[in-house]
User: Fold this.
Amino acid sequence: MLNEDMKKSYKDLVEAHDFAHTGNWEMDMIQIQKRFQVLVQQSSDVFEIISPDFTIQYISPAVEKIIGYTPEERIGKNALEFLEMEQKQEFIKMVDYVLECPEERMQGDLALKDQNGKVSYLTYTISNQLQEPSIRGIVINWRDITDRIENQKQIEYIATHDELTKLPNRVALKKKICQLCEENADLNYNFALIMLDIDGFRYINDALGYQLGDQLIIQVKSRLQGFLGENEFLCRYTGDQFAIIIQNMNQSWEYEQVVKKIAMLFKDAYKVDLYELDMTVSLGISMYPHDERDPDLLINYANISLLRSKHEGKNRYKFYSSEIGIQIYKQVVLRNDLLKAIERKQFQVYYQAQVELESSDILAAEALIRWDHPEWGMVSPNEFISLAEETGFIINLGNWMLNEVCKTYKSWMEQGMAPIKVSVNYSSIQFFEKNFVDNIITIINQYELNPHFLIMEITESVFMKNPEKAIVDIKRLQYQGIQVALDDFGTGFSSLSYLNSFNIDILKIDRSFIKNVMMDDASTIITRSVIDLAQELRIKLVAEGIENQEQLKYLKGANCYSGQGYLYNKPMPSDEFVQLLAKKKCLPTQLLNEKKTGKEHRKYLRIKLPKLLEADMSIRKRPEQNFNVGSVKVEVKNISSEGLCFAAGVRLPVNNELQLEFLIPTKDGKEAKICGYPVWAQETENSWYEYGVEFDHSPSEKIDLTMELYSLCKEMYNYN
Assistant:
């Protein structure tokens, strides 16, 4: 017979679940039990009731489908018997919690082995139903999530492993280094991170094809794995670069011995298909914790060392040291400062006119980004765009630049300037952003501008990576009135096929052809062919890099419509460019005359040397720092006891707290050491820079230097 509490419970249950109410509580109970029994038997979830001492009182039939045990094999047993030690402790904590807090529910996951040892992954919910008369126990509802976990593992594997070699990739490398650093932060522990790059691998791909290149990569992987064994970490970092972690050796020379043995693995030729390939490698090494404890910097330092070893020749290795090359040091500084450059308002947009060659009318302006770095001065895009692409910062940078261009263009229109086009360069990374076109239109609409003013410059890499998306996005841009220009035309491999497949509005002839158009038959033929092709296809044409009257004369004779270059104007800030825009024309000038009338920088008489003198230049002192960042070769143009002028391929800031040290060769194979500070700088052709340096020395040193310079100049001029 049912007591009054049980009758009330069943009455509530019947009404809640809309059961037929017969008035006979016993019959209703049987009906409810049968219905729930059917539902429980058909459910893929497992329902379990245990007592506070973990004895299993009830478990539904679905348990057999998941872990192979029948309910009869489980009921009466202790639920903890089927769990591993760590899972037992976690399970006990959760049960204790719901016993203390009956109104709360707890959720968790666990891995459970079936009778055959196969692991199933389960998620479960625990609730306290001790006060429920029909249950009087702790209810556990758990379900099988093995398929989901296995899918997650597969996704994680794909994200952290290289498809070709099945090795861990650069994502896995970062995780591994982070793990090692965290687990051993307080221990006397060390490891070496070795970056290995196959010398000349790109040429093998180009000459023999990617399939043979892939076969070579697999053989390299096999040799490395055979040497390292299973205990050392090996990953494929990039296409032809591998990363290796060697752990916890007693002495630094032991690591060096391992590095030498790795290099020796490439002594024997690799047999790939019908070819025998003699391979060499370059290696760069950074050490934890000696060089750095930060995972990102450790990877960065290993790559810097790799660059140095490649620079010094094939089959070399370099351990990281603070004496790194100036250019590489600059890249490290720029990389660290790049992400905060927008909020620090360090970027500027410069403009260079695109003119009609016959009339010199200004048709358009190319927007070019510059970075006014507080230490390194004005940094060109060639030095930081690749870093922005590598870090993904290029997306934010591109949005910032388009905002600045729109703001400036609206200002020009409000000042009554003639409407012109403005071209903005976009990388393939920006182009394949999911909402690429929508973001552009949104920014333009914020300034209430007509999109027709914008020209988007792209390179062939946009087409190579995802041609289907490129076609769709180009059509959407052109529908909005935005023109699309193909930059650096003629330098890629498939330009003509792109013209056939994509509706390009403008072609820009690469400056490398214009530079050699009067000296190189190949450049002349290519330039003439591109001009004729553009006319036949009725595509607008812009010649880049016009620097002298001879080039301009040739382009006019070939009926080239428009162009840009230093002959017309160097890139300039918007406030200067608007003055040029007000004239509506940009006349070509003679650069030689500009140089003759330029500002004279020298304060002291200097001896002009009969030929450029090669010297080693190092940075020895920076604000609040004293360090050595290695040396770079420079060319000394003139010199005196007070200062010198030199040219270099690296851009340096003009800063009186930046001390430069020069080692200048003198007679008898000796060197004169001179220190000074840069006082002026100017950009020259071919991305080189000239600097004026004022020496910093005592009067006695000045006398010694004067004698050395006298002997040097006497020798160079062949005086007797």
